[in-house]
Design a protein that fits this description.
The complex is a heterodimer.
Chain A: E1 4-15, E2 18-29, E3 33-37, H1 44-51, E4 59-64, H2 73-77, E5 80-83, H3 95-106, H4 112-117, H5 133-145, E6 151-155, H6 163-178, E7 182-186, H7 190-196, E8 199-204, E9 207-212, H8 214-219, E10 225-231, E11 246-252, E12 255-260, H9 263-276, E13 281-287, H10 291-299
Parallel strand pairs in A: 3-7, 3-8, 5-6, 6-7
Antiparallel strand pairs in A: 1-2, 1-4, 8-9, 10-12, 10-13, 11-12
Chain B: H1 2-17, H2 19-43, H3 51-65, H4 69-77, H5 80-86, H6 91-121, H7 129-153, H8 157-174, H9 186-192, H10 196-208, H11 217-238, H12 260-268
Chain lengths: ~300, ~270
Amino acid sequence: MSQPMIEVSDFRKVYGDFVAVDGISFEVRQGEIFGLLGPNGAGKTSTLESLEGLRAPSGGSVRVAGIDPTKEPRKLRNVIGVQLQSAGLPESITPNEAMAFFSAYHGVAPRYDLLDRLGLNEKRKAQFFELSTGQQRRLSLALAVAHEPQVLFLDEPTAGLDVATRVELHDLMRELQAKGTTIILATHDMAEAEEMSDRVAILLNQKLVSIGTPMEITATGAGLTKVSVRTQNGSVSNPEIALPAVRQRSSKEAYDIFFSTDIGPTVSAVIAQIESAGDTLIDLRVERPSLEDRFLEITGTKKASNGGPQ
Amino acid sequence: MSAFIYHFSFEFRTGIRNKTLLMMNYLFPIGFFLMMGFVMAGINPAFLETMTPGMAVFAVLAATLLGIPDPLVNGRENGIFRSYKINGISSISILIMPVLTTILHLTIVTAIISILSPLIFDAPAPTNWFSYVLIFLALAFVMAGISVLIGVIAPNSRVTVLYSQLFFIPSILLGGMMFPYNLLPDGVGKVAQLLPATQAMNAFNGLAMGGTADFNPWGSVAALFASGVLAFALAVYLFSWDSRNTERRGHPLMALLFLLPFVVGILLG
């Protein structure tokens, strides 16, 4: 990861009286997978569309691979690949034709192998309207990467995909990343963002409210870490036993569950209690708050975190 | 060049593959031509005199007004143009491809009509084929330009149909295909001169069919080409990539400027 491929500086987008994005700044480095998260209306689409050259910023600046998308749209075309949320192809075009057509405009040889790899080999001559939603999205993705762009924008790439294709897409993303492609991933799927992104940015109410690695973001939350313990004789089941840093406790299917603000002392105390009681530990699981928990906390959708008792 | 050929080739195939476009480009004009030949010729033998150019004009009206605008509106509303923009396809390419491919489809249909009309119905063939082809191209160009303009300014498919019919129906009724222009009352005749179909029938009669024009036939040809250029230029100017959060350039009423050459023609008498 070296020079910045995306530079957003005090970017602002206004439609009439409506402020869609209000002065956000961030950078994405070459080879990064960068998750752009936020609830509907937070400003993700306006940010993406300005980076893709579909909208002109109302203030501040955006640059993609050193290119101003508004002033140098022709240069931008071969640098970026975009998988739009809506597939955006004529209903009668076939995957083969679309590949030939778009590749010709990018001045590269058609990559029919990508159609096969993304499971469209049997649908290469079917018209676009005959494809399922998942197949349409896969075609859109194949077209977006066919010219080997330096920056790839993926908008909800796995929505409507089956598990196998989703895995294939993630493999493809990692392969592209290994080749140095910078990927901007806009998604509502927090598990995907957490798994795939090197860093994520969370937009809320038109502002950037959090940015960092998924670990950094989840670590800064007020979320409680869930410690689930199962023992031979239930030596930690007694609610009278005081455990450090535990704020809440419950039980489920032979597990005693503790919600801790500081897992180190909690786990040490649990093990010490089991040993002093002459009991045997069968299972112990620690689950940190997920990115989804943190996202819900930030966006105010959920007050507590990590599925703890409400 | 390769991209242009791919784009043209795809659009041309769409004109046959898409059932609606196949209907408007081929089945409707040829079916109407056969029906009119068999029915109208029996009722009104004088109809045969202008049948060949009249059915060519009808084919142009159907393929352009009923075939071109809706795909453009759908392209804009369904995000197809956004996808095109991201991939470097220019607005001029988006607008010119349906014009070129429709003219090619129309050339085929008009050739069929022009050859079959004398053979099956004994209708007069053009006496000046060069003028006939020139007038056909002028009409096809201006109607394709107007249709693209409708596709650009219409906010949705329903309005597209309305705008198209505003031209299609008066063109059929007043364009000189059903009734000769000289039978129209003066005032209606002036209104009819605003229609490319009227201008084309006038030019066909005066320059290609060995008949008499009702007004300056070369003026009609010039007005058709001029209006076509204006219509296409206005379409390019008023074009928008999508209808979401986009500031449109110019007011849609600007589209009416394509009528200017016909208005000038009327004023010059």
